[in-house]
Amino acid sequence: MNNFSEANQWDYLYTARRRVIACATVIEELLPLLPEDVASETLDFGLHLHPDDLKRALQEKINEASQHADVLLLGYGLCSMAVVGLHTTTAHVVIPRVDDCIAIFLGSCNAYKEQAKKEPGTYYLTKGWIEVGDSPFEEYKRLSEKFGELKAGRIIRLMLKNYTRLGFINTGQYEIERYREYARKTADKFNLRFEEIDGSPALVKKMVFGPWNEEFLVMKPGQTVKYTDFVKP
Amino acid sequence: MSKELIDAIVDMREEDAVKITAQLLDGGTDPLVVLDACREAMGVIGMRFETGESFISELILAGEILSQISAIVKPRIQKGGAEKKIGKVILGTVQGDIHDIAKDIVGFMLDVNGFEVTNLGVDVPPAKFVEAVKSSGAKIVGLSGFLTLAFDPMKDTVAAIKAAGLNEVKIMIGGGQIDENIRQYTGADAYGKDAMAAVALAKSWS
Questions:
Q1: N or C: which end of chain A has fewer CB within 10 A?
Q2: Are A143 and B57 within 8 A, CB to CB?
Q3: Does the pTM of the predicted model rise above 0.90?
Q4: Every domain of chain A and the residues it spans
Q5: Are residues B67 and B114 in the same domain?
Q6: Strand, coil or helix: B177
Q7: Are B120 and B195 found together in one domain?
Q8: A155: which chain B residues are within 8 Å (Cβ-Cβ)?
Q9: B182 interaction partners in chain A (CB closer than 8 Å)
């Protein structure tokens, strides 16, 4: 890393050798925005179910990517604390200060908190989740094979018993109709109220082009992510 | 026979588990032995979930099986007069979170281990916890939350309990990725990794 004064540090970082490391669901939102000189790597979506595995995978990627880039942009939030404990030795690492990707799709941490407050029992779906098969429908299919349809239906109903709304996030980044239809069918099948929620590319745009304001954690070389880095005053 | 029950629960053979429970009790097996089998089975299921061998849906089914067994076993325990409550626990998922599968398993485990559990449900505001502690005189509160979004409401709930002057009340938290950092952040007295940890904590405070 070159030496540079605090004043021009940001300008330097915004144009430094950058590389994106993102979850398979988040990369969809980032790719249309990425300048040609910014490389990207995608990690398996399934890792989010196992935060320790995700942590290990992310640390490996950070170590590896640090050899080719000065700034790493993580397409992740706290993600069940998976990013807590990540360490960077040579690169700057930029992480949105959000709980998880729902805030990334909605465009800000506050937008997510507003939705959560309005209706905590919301099952969110996006194109990414539908593509990777993380939806009640796919779970129902898996359970039906194992336990039969009757019992599978019962388990899914129990699983969703506190959910009232299916929130389909339209981020406007892709052909929406097919996914909207799938989301609507899922809502009908499992007795949830379908609602389309407008997403926003605001946060991913800032992530790629800056400014990295209070919505981002910018780790300097030598730093380790702490939970309190994500706490807002 | 109690080994058969453990296997039935672990293998998620719901009907068999219920049938074997009834057979055991009718054959004169101590209801507490049946509950021990449940505890052991839950230990195995919890471990499988931890290692990724089973999914949340299996945990739900296990919870269902347990509550059915519990419904058969509990009247027998009360009839036998063996049950003596060792403490009261107020349990709930904090405001803004609606996940309750693991919390209800914690409730079940506390219950079968001799605690009187008041389960306030999900999305519970801090004031409701305070009210429940005051009206029941409980000395233990369990706050559950799966999402990282739940950590702030947990902190608010701990603060509300302290602000109400209920300083002798012990508060444990659990769910998702809660660890010592989050315990410190929320100001809770302890955190538990699983239902058995919750039982051990509650016992140590009684």
A1: C
A2: yes
A3: no
A4: 6-100+202-230, 109-198
A5: no
A6: coil
A7: yes
A8: 57, 60-61, 64
A9: 227
